[in-house]
Design goal:
alpha/beta; Isoleucyl-tRNA Synthetase, Domain 1; seven-stranded parallel β-sheet; four-stranded antiparallel β-sheet; 18 helices; elongated
């Protein structure tokens, strides 16, 4: 994406005030697919996720649970670590903001901001949302029908806070941030979010309160431990903690600046306004790109604790299978937009896209080869225009998918792949190899070689999305482990290679009630 041999991709670190739901799974899945794709494409990848464990909200939640903050954070953080196995994610590390190295990085960054003249001591008086861990201006709040003042943007209750506070001179950074956005038009994606952030900055920035004194669960301010660092200054620093900061001689420092921070749209200002200002103040490069995806609703309703409609990813995996869930989440909705999750839509994708299209193509092609071609990759004979058309579309896919994933257009990448799968299914019907077996077995063999080769190329590209299922298909094509990267994309199948007995990979999903009838 950046022309470098390294590729550093991060999820937001997840706040330990709730157990993982489909929204968390979605963000990390997108990063996992990118990390897997870049590894297959020869990049030196570092993929980071983790948990954000400090702040007043955690201190309060721990007390309500009768636990010390650290014990509470340990418990909930583990549920996010467990999600890695549930969804078959492949991070290189899982960071926690309660690690000693993270305290050291936060305090080192703070001292850099002080040295730059961007931190001063004052007094904060204003509205604060404990739930959002966010400060709100008077005009960003309103009194609701329940007589409680709430943040207009999130609906969270706010409280009036007056306390000594250190401030970061964010107001001095407006022009430099706008210059960053203008110079690097890909810094914020998608474009709708870029426009939103630029409008916010052009409207004028206020200095940011970056410390609290009313609670103690967090990183102490260097030299003034009565103050705890603002949770967002603490949390954002995790991205450079992982790279060894403040030790720029650390082997991991080669990964900074990050190629991509993946975030939800609700936290884009923290990542695109506060974070680059902190970094540039400290003399560090900002990340290359921040992409803010949309939210999922559930059967038409927004996920919320009060409605109790959050979906446990493990439940979905148990009901529908891991790879079908991974595929559905990135295929159903244009990445960056909001989308609605429905089980009916998931089952539709599973049966139409996976069982009927991809699974059927693999099963019937490999079954014909097993039955009629001696369980070997058949010989490649004379190539016709129809053969060339299909093979060329399959060959072009790697460049197409690379370009789509560079823009985080996961749905477009999958659409392009499935168009070739559809072409291959039409090719089978048009060539009718079962008929050629009687009239022209040499031509039959060529048709089956073309199909096997198309399946190979398609499957190599589907690997990041559905790693377990594609491994089974590549096994059935007898593709060795060292030929499953994109460096081998143009290494065609060798005729005569013995193939194992084919087995279906994507069975149709039948509702349990229907199956019982």
């Amino acid at each position: 994406m950046s022309g470098r041999s390294t590729f550093y991709v991060t999820t937001p670190i997840y706040y330990v005030n709730d157990v993982p739901h489909i929204g968390h799974a979605y963000t990390t899945l997108a990063c996992d697919v990118l990390a897997r794709f870049m590894r297959l494409d020869g990049r030196d990848v570092h993929f980071l996720t983790g948990t954000d464990e400090h702040g007043q909200k955690i201190e309060t939640a721990a007390a309500a649970a009768g636990l010390a903050p650290q014990a509470y954070a340990d418990k909930v953080s583990q549920s996010f670590r467990d999600l890695l196995g549930t969804m078959n994610y492949s991070p290189d590390n899982f960071i926690r903001t309660t690690e000693k190295r993270h305290y050291a990085a936060c305090q080192a960054l703070w001292e850099k901001l002080v040295a730059a003249g961007d931190i001063y001591l004052g007094k904060y008086a204003g509205w604060y949302s404990v739930r959002d861990e966010t400060y709100f201006a008077e005009g960003e709040t309103e009194v609701g029908p329940d007589k409680k003042r709430r943040a207009i943007s999130t609906g969270a209750e706010v409280e009036w806070v007056e306390e000594p506070s250190y401030f970061f001179k964010l107001s001095a950074w407006s022009e430099r941030l706008l210059a960053l956005y203008e110079k690097n038009p890909r810094f914020i994606g998608p474009d709708s979010r870029r426009n939103e952030v630029m409008s916010f900055v052009r409207g004028g920035l206020q200095d940011l309160s970056v410390s609290r004194t009313s609670f103690s669960w967090g990183v102490p301010v260097p030299g003034d431990p009565k103050h705890i660092m603002y949770v967002w200054l603490d949390a954002l620093t995790n991205y450079i903690t992982e790279c060894g900061y403040p030790d720029t001689g650390n082997p991991n420092w080669k990964y900074w600046p990050a190629d991509l921070h993946m975030v939800g749209k609700d936290i884009i200002r923290f990542h695109c306004v506060f974070w680059p200002a902190f970094l540039m103040s400290a003399g560090l490069e900002p990340p290359k790109r921040v992409f803010a995806h949309g939210w999922w609703t559930i059967e038409g309703q927004r996920m919320s604790k009060s409605l109790g409609n959050g979906i446990n990813p493990a439940e979905l995996v148990n009901a529908y299978g891991l790879d079908p869930v991974r595929y559905f989440l990135l295929r159903e909705v244009p990445f960056g937009n909001d989308g609605d999750f429905s089980r009916r839509a998931l089952i539709g994708r599973l049966n139409a896209d996976l069982a009927n299209a991809y699974g059927n193509l693999c099963q019937r092609s490999l079954s014909i080869i097993a039955k009629s071609c001696g369980e070997q990759v058949p010989p490649k004979g004379a190539i016709t225009d129809a053969d060339t058309a299909l093979l060329d579309r399959a060959r072009r896919l790697l460049a197409i998918v690379r370009a789509e994933l560079e823009e985080q257009s996961f749905h477009k990448a999958l659409t392009s792949i499935w168009e070739v799968i559809a072409d291959a299914n039409r090719y089978v019907d048009a060539q009718a190899p079962w008929a050629l077996a009687k009239t022209d077995p040499v031509r039959r063999d060529t048709v089956m070689w073309v199909l096997a080769e198309t399946i190979r190329r398609v499957t190599l590209l589907v690997q990041p999305f559905m790693p377990d299922s594609t491994a089974k298909i590549l096994d059935q094509l007898a593709i060795p482990a060292d030929a499953r990267t994109f460096a081998a994309f143009d290494r065609e199948l060798e005729s005569g290679t013995t193939l194992p007995k084919p087995q279906g990979v994507f069975p149709r999903f039948v509702e349990p009630a229907a199956a019982a009838d």
